[in-house]
């Protein structure tokens, strides 16, 4: 039998504090419904001093290793996807290695391409295992970011922060990847970027939505062709409806709804060979809404409460979905869409494992969220206005890590 490769376990670390998006809307003089219904968010994580992308990454990975009792000598690769690293040269992966005292025999590096960096890391590790080069070892992929657009900007309610760590192995108890069956789509565009030296991203918001939707069509069509050729799906009906659930990169929850409508439009237009006319559009709108509720909405719970975590966003959706529905999804195929501005995207798929319910329980996602503290907008603004690289002011939580300061250009963590 062909070797299975994929995600064996997943854990999440989020900042200790968050704001309520209705509080933010009121402070900005905006109708709260714009943020909660128009963008689909409820809460937004706020990274406080000490919670940089390396500290969050190490906190998520520490829980992964602890909860799965991973023997560190079995870890052959540690790859971090991030677009908000802490050094122009030194990898976040090296900082994590140091904080967790992981062995020197690992291959460690970071992957960067906006929010796609986590998927690039997952591909690197899963292909390493599938090639046989891993030789019975496992890999750890961490996606860790802090999304910042700045106060009083259109992007402000779509910020967030957090890290997702994944154990990738030949024992994919959560999700066995359909390796070799993916569609990719990329373009050279300025939809969202962060010039050197800037902490806040520059974004052409509405254009970025269009780039994302073009990428959905391009990468989904590539996946569909390969999935049909490999008999993962059948011709006839809507191919996208044969996927039990579809996960998207979630910069804000409404984006997943737009993406899903686009994906269905691809199926419908390609089947009829022409763009939808007015009658077909009118028939499709309620069907797309119902399909979104069934196929996509169950994965959005964590994103609505944490915000955009950039590289980890798609995998936060995976954790969210499995927490809610793993039992009913065992043995079923789901689709995943990863997007990174600039831009590159990939549509891929995998089959949920029979032990996913037990494995996701060990991530203790309810505890991770319930331990957070809600803060007001004045405190959020104070934190955002602090100069960069502030050391932790609050004590480091048990099992977690915080940035403690820089001595002679050397960052220290505890
Ligand atoms: P905006 O222009 O202020 O918002 O910013 P809007 O006017 O477009 O309104 C947003 C939605 O709220 C609309 O819904 C309104 O109708 C609705 P839609 O028409 O789109 O369905 N609305 C209301 N609903 C209910 N009650 C109301 C109300 N008022 C309005 N009273 C924008 C929106 C997303 C542009 C902004 O937040 C932004 O720039 N965000 C950052 C960019 C972004 O997230 N882009 C997403 C695609 S690119 C991507 O995903 C990559 C990324 O993750 C980075 C990476 O790859 O590293 C960002």
Concise synopsis of the structure shown:
The protein has 414 residues and is an alpha+beta fold. Helices cover 39% and strands 22% of the residues.
Cofactors and ligands present?
3-hydroxy-3-methylglutaryl-coenzyme A
Count up the helices.
13
- Given helix and strand content, the structural type is alpha+beta
3D shape: globular
The helical percent reads 25-40%
Rounded to the nearest angstrom, the distance between the terminal CA atoms is: 45 Å
Low-pLDDT segments, ≥5 res: none
Please give the radius of gyration in angstroms.
Answer: 20 Å
Count the strands? Answer: 17
Largest sheet: 10 strands, mixed
Q: What is the overall pLDDT average?
A: 97
Q: What topology does this entry show?
A:
Elements: E1 6-13, E2 17-20, H1 21-28, H2 32-38, E3 43-46, H3 53-67, E4 75-81, H4 92-100, E5 107-111, H5 117-130, E6 138-147, E7 160-169, E8 175-177, E9 183-186, E10 192-193, E11 202-203, H6 205-229, E12 245-248, H7 253-272, H8 278-295, H9 301-306, H10 313-329, E13 333-340, E14 344-352, H11 356-361, H12 365-370, E15 373-374, H13 377-385, E16 403-407, E17 410-413
Parallel strand pairs: 2-15, 4-5, 4-6, 12-13
Antiparallel strand pairs: 1-7, 1-8, 2-3, 6-7, 8-14, 9-14, 10-11, 13-14, 16-17
3-hydroxy-3-methylglutaryl-coenzyme A binds at residues 31, 33-34, 37-39, 83, 114-115, 154-155, 158, 191-192, 203, 205-206, 208-209, 212, 249, 251-252, 254-255, 308, 310, 339-341.
